[in-house]
Amino acid sequence: MKLTGKVALVTGAGQGIGRGIAEVFANEGADVIVNDISTGEKTDQVAATIRSLGRRALVVQADVSKREDVERMFEEAQELGPIDILVNNAGVETIVPFLDLTDQQWEDVTNINLKAGWMCAQTFCRRAIHEGRKGAIVNIGSIQAARVLPGRTHYAPSKLAIEALTRNISAEVGLNGIRVNCIHPGLIDTPMIRWVLESPEILPQVVAQISLGYPGKPCDIGYAAAFLASDEARYITGQSIYVDGGWAGK
Ligand code: NAP
After folding, report:
1. Residue 139: helix, strand or coil by DSSP?
2. 17, 206, 209, 216 - which has most CB atoms within 10 Å?
3. Best mutation site among 111, 192, 240 for ligand 1, i.e. most ligand atoms within 8 A of its Cβ?
4. How far apart are CA 211 and CA 209, in angstroms?
């Protein structure tokens, strides 16, 4: 198991990719803090799965786009002990034509997709460095860092910027033993993109761009994240990798 004895915090882990990452991490031996903006049945189910794998789980509600929530989340997370791994997964996608996009719509998306990851990484690194501990951060970007889809002039930049965030943070905390990497998922079967999967018009157009010819599953992102967070990736930092069935490379 790659993550035995580690404690991981996964944001937006109530469903979709975050849930997949949390469950793969538990399967690899990690205890997991399950964060989401909305908790209840969905987060309880994730926690139950983690516990059924013999690991500890803690659900922490927080809106990670808010500084006070981020600080509180890390405080409450201490219940599982010092955090070794942070996965910045929480994100939102809206589709608005460029000419119609409002300031508020821009801020709503960039605050969660980009600023939240920056704040969580900063809080994680400050604590780890203060306590003299090493760590690993995995940021979740998007295929849209490399491919244009209509109506995403706010979403796509927020995801491409995660590459720069990843590189820049990794350069500042490398000597403290903290590694920072990014995964760009392709089309992954989650509630966020269910409308694509259920559209007989759009789905074939998207799948035609994927070399492997089918959508990925949340656990596919989880496997890559587990590797990047593990000691097997001890000499990898500042990198962004596409886990997309060959979409970006086609
Ligand atoms: P999802 O199914 O919508 O799940 C995202 C989870 O994050 C939801 O549980 C959501 O809660 C939570 N969340 C949203 N805002 C939050 C906040 N401010 N604080 C804490 N939690 C918050 O999305 P997904 O498909 O799993 O996507 C996960 C990440 O992968 C996102 O960053 C997304 O941009 C990225 N991504 C996904 C795909 C894909 O094909 N699925 C492709 C590329 C990139 P609520 O539902 O209650 O709002």
Report:
1. strand
2. 17
3. 192
4. 6
Tokens encoding 64: 């990670």
Q: How far apart are CA 23 and CA 20, in angstroms?
A: 5
155 is catalytic: yes
Binned at pLDDT 50, 70 and 90, residue 59 comes out as very high
Among candidates 16, 63, 7, 68, which has minimal Cα distance to 35? 63
Separation between Cα atoms, residue 234 and residue 223, nearest integer Å:
16
Q: Is the CB of 140 under 6 A from ligand 1?
A: yes
Q: Which residues contact 45 (CB under 8 A, 6 or more apart)?
A: none
Domains of the chain: 7-243 (3.40.50.720)
Does the pTM of the predicted model rise above 0.85? yes
Q: Measuring CA to CA, which residue among 180, 164, 160, 150 is closest to residue 248? A: 160
Look up residue 227 and give its two tokens: 């590797």
Measured CA to CA, the distance from residue 43 to residue 177 in angstroms comes to: 31
Q: How confident is the model at residue 198, as a pLDDT?
A: 97
Q: How far apart are CA 41 and CA 180, in angstroms?
A: 31
From edge to edge, which strands make up the β-sheet containing 240-243? 57-61, 31-36, 7-10, 85-88, 135-140, 178-185, 240-243
